[in-house]
Automatic annotation (TrEMBL), chain A:
Listed Pfam families: Radical_SAM (PF04055), SPASM (PF13186)
The protein's name in its UniProt record: PqqA peptide cyclase
Catalytic activity, as annotated: [PQQ precursor protein] + S-adenosyl-L-methionine = E-Y cross-linked-[PQQ precursor protein] + 5'-deoxyadenosine + L-methionine + H(+)
CDD domains: Radical_SAM, SPASM_PqqE
Automatic annotation (TrEMBL), chain B:
BP-aspect Gene Ontology terms: pyrroloquinoline quinone biosynthetic process
Organism taxonomic ancestry: Bacteria, Pseudomonadati, Pseudomonadota, Alphaproteobacteria, Rhodobacterales
Keyword Translocase: no
Pathway field: Cofactor biosynthesis; pyrroloquinoline quinone biosynthesis
GO molecular function: quinone binding
Protein name per the record: Pyrroloquinoline quinone biosynthesis protein PqqD
Annotated keywords: PQQ biosynthesis
Oligomer status and interactors: Monomer. Interacts with PqqE.
């Protein structure tokens, strides 16, 4: 195998702690506890190693990254290392004072999640009373400070009808971009497929709305769209190809090719506590397991799309057909495709209550003003 | 694109020298755009005060190239950045937008 190109992006999961308990949380079912999280100085060293390795974009995520009291210090250190800093947040845990401190630290961009467009919907999905009101206040401060903003709306059967309003809200907030992401089923979210799976009709309607809005809002709002992939005929180009463009560091310092990779239990993951980021990226067994195309079985190996989608999502192949090297069953060429479509229809027709996730440790207190 | 418009890199979009790959990139929210020499030359002239026509004239003089050709290249490249919200346009007598 030739030497891999350097990664462009790193997702730093600073903590698994989060005041919300969204049923579609993609974090692992077993979450890292606060006392196992990397310390400030560890993260700062990892940011420098990432910049030296070629990472340009740093996504600070979680859990809720604002649950880390050292977030401002981490942002300043990341900027100092030369990284572009993106904060992926629900807004809960951010006060105006903290946002201004993040501004002073050099934070480049904020991605704000949206659980719904009304307090009733958002608070029900997030499992946090008052969360929507708080988020709107945070959005206002973000606008006043002038941070570039992306709104991130996760859509599923219960809130897909709110998509037009979500797009309007992005424009009203002055966001330059909205990510319209149909729910993906990884981690905790797998427990909620019966409650959240959109119908095929809803999925088609979302695509229509996005297509029209892109046209109408050209030059005003960029719309990134993740379609409902159980209802698709070709799989997503997961991570741009395994081990090709991005890497993920968990709260305890494990380095993963994607944030769900721990569900592939036969892989061995290394920690930034024991090895350099460069060593892990270039030589780590987990990164080399599905890098490139040599690992592919049929029908991927002879497929003309193999460098288009790289066989889709390894974690999804693992979760749905029990084999991480299988063709993503979303693909029409997979022998499991017909079965998956039937399962998707069944999930979409099912009635089920939301199964909220519970966070490790205590709830995050709102900061005093 | 209006030749009198003033291209402005909005907050959160910046030129960055990628020392690992030995190239210039435009860093924007959750995106990095690799710049070739022409793209880098055009963006290096974007200072938030000069109009597209002034930038075009500067580049034409510096590279001893036909101004119409440079104008076409610059408008195409900068227009695509506008569509992605990586670039704002201000008018000559208006202050640049806040974001």
């Amino acid at each position: 195998m030739t030497q891999p190109k350097p990664p462009i992006a790193m997702l730093a999961e600073l903590t698994h702690r989060c005041p919300l308990s969204c049923p579609y949380c993609s974090n692992p079912v077993e979450m890292a506890r606060q006392d196992s999280e990397l310390a400030t100085q560890d993260w700062i060293r990892v940011f420098r190693e990432a910049a030296d390795l070629g990472v340009l974009q740093l996504h600070l995520s979680g859990g809720e990254p604002a649950s880390r009291r050292d977030l401002e210090e981490l942002v300043a250190a990341a900027r100092d290392a030369g990284l572009y800093t993106n904060l992926i947040t629900s807004g809960i845990g951010l006060s105006e004072r903290r946002l201004r401190a993040l501004d002073a630290a050099g934070l480049d961009h904020v991605q704000l999640s949206l659980q719904g467009t009304t307090p009733e919907m958002a608070d029900e999905i997030g499992g946090y009373t008052g969360g929507f009101k708080r988020k709107m206040q945070v959005a206002d401060w973000i606008g006043q400070i002038g941070f570039p903003l992306t709104l991130n709306a996760v859509l599923h059967r219960r809130n897909l009808h709110q998509l037009p309003r979500a797009i309007e809200m992005a424009v009203e907030m002055g966001a330059r971009r909205i990510e319209v992401a149909t729910v993906q089923f990884h981690g905790w979210a797998l427990k909620n497929r019966d409650a959240l799976m959109p119908t095929r009709e809803q999925a088609a309607e979302a695509t229509r709305i996005v297509t029209e809005a892109r046209q109408a809002l050209k030059g005003t709002l960029v719309i990134d769209y993740v379609p409902a992939d159980y209802h698709s005929d070709y799989p997503k180009r997961c991570m741009g190809g395994w081990g090709s463009t991005g890497l993920n560091v968990t709260p305890e310092g494990l380095v993963l090719p994607c944030h769900a990779a721990q569900t592939i239990t036969h892989l061995t993951f290394q920690s930034v506590r024991d090895a350099s980021l460069s060593g892990i990226w270039h030589d780590g067994p987990a990164f080399n397991a599905y890098r490139g195309t040599d690992w592919m079985p049929e029908p991927c190996a002879s497929c003309e799309r193999k460098t288009v989608d790289f066989g889709g999502c390894r974690c999804q192949a693992m979760a749905l057909v029990g084999d991480a090297s299988a063709t993503d069953p979303v693909c029409v060429k997979s022998p499991h495709h017909v079965d998956l479509q039937a399962r998707a229809e069944a999930h979409a027709a099912a009635e089920a209550p939301l199964v909220y996730r519970t966070a490790p440790g205590r709830r995050v207190e709102e900061p005093a003003q | 694109m209006d030749p009198h418009a003033i291209p402005v890199l909005p907050r959160g979009v910046r030129l960055h020298h990628d020392r690992v790959r030995g190239t210039w990139v435009l860093l924007a929210p959750e995106r990095a755009v690799t710049l070739d020499q022409t793209a880098h030359a055009i963006l290096s002239e974007v200072d938030g005060t000069r109009s597209l026509s002034q930038i075009t004239a500067t580049l034409a003089a510096r590279y001893n190239a036909p101004e119409a050709e440079i104008a076409k290249d610059a408008a195409g490249f900068l227009g695509a950045l506008c569509d992605r919200r990586f670039l704002d346009l201000a008018q000559e007598d208006a202050p640049p937008p806040a974001r």
